[in-house]
Amino acid sequence: MATPPHLASQLAVNVLDAHSLLAAFGVFGVGVVLFAETGLLIGFFLPGDSLLFTAGLLCTGAADRGLHLSLGPLLVAAALGALAGSQCGFLIGRKAGGALLARTRSAKLREGAQRAEELLDRYGHAKAIVLARFVPVVRTVLNPMAGALGVPARTFTLWQVIGGLVWSLGLTLGGYALGSSIPNVDKYLLPVIALIVLVSLIPLAAEVLRSRRAAKETP
């Protein structure tokens, strides 16, 4: 029995490629991927940054790849996926403690957990929760780490909502703005996505530099 074309395309989706995910699942896929990346430890490898930017770009029709998304539903799906995923990760951490991270065999997850704990210790809950959104892997593990370390639920919810909206809507609208202003931007998609990922790390880098300068100035 032959597999229907639309089902075959979904089965053949490359979860590491933003365009493949969008072509297979559209706006709905954005919400699901962001939920998995920010809420489930198994989603640490998913391409959240490039997915958001590429999805925003495809809303303009600038990318000539036979795929066009609607900006309004995309923004809603991105925000809901990012916020619900983060809150789910926090609840998992609160229920399971650090057991899940302690048993993982993934070196990336262990490294991310260490960096997440360092962020919480160095910058406090509010800054760490917001900054973690812009760091791949760390944004996956900080949420359960916050739950396991006893960060107050009200504090976590407030700052994960702020950080989640800035990250998800900011990258999506960045892709939309670029696609609207630069003709044939699709030709430069890969280097542009790489640039966006680097730019997304600026808040963390700026905070690290500020902290180091403050430490040097302190007797």
UniProtKB/TrEMBL annotation:
<feature type="domain" description="VTT">
    <location>
        <begin position="46"/>
        <end position="176"/>
    </location>
</feature>
<feature type="transmembrane region" description="Helical">
    <location>
        <begin position="66"/>
        <end position="85"/>
    </location>
</feature>
<keyword id="KW-1133">Transmembrane helix</keyword>
<feature type="transmembrane region" description="Helical">
    <location>
        <begin position="188"/>
        <end position="209"/>
    </location>
</feature>
<keyword id="KW-0812">Transmembrane</keyword>
<keyword id="KW-0472">Membrane</keyword>
<comment type="similarity">
    <text>Belongs to the DedA family.</text>
</comment>
<dbReference type="GO" id="GO:0005886">
    <property type="term" value="C:plasma membrane"/>
</dbReference>
<dbReference type="InterPro" id="IPR032818">
    <property type="entry name" value="DedA-like"/>
</dbReference>
<keyword id="KW-1003">Cell membrane</keyword>
<feature type="transmembrane region" description="Helical">
    <location>
        <begin position="21"/>
        <end position="46"/>
    </location>
</feature>
<protein>
    <submittedName>
        <fullName>Membrane-associated protein</fullName>
    </submittedName>
</protein>
<dbReference type="InterPro" id="IPR032816">
    <property type="entry name" value="VTT_dom"/>
</dbReference>
<feature type="transmembrane region" description="Helical">
    <location>
        <begin position="156"/>
        <end position="176"/>
    </location>
</feature>
<dbReference type="Pfam" id="PF09335">
    <property type="entry name" value="VTT_dom"/>
</dbReference>
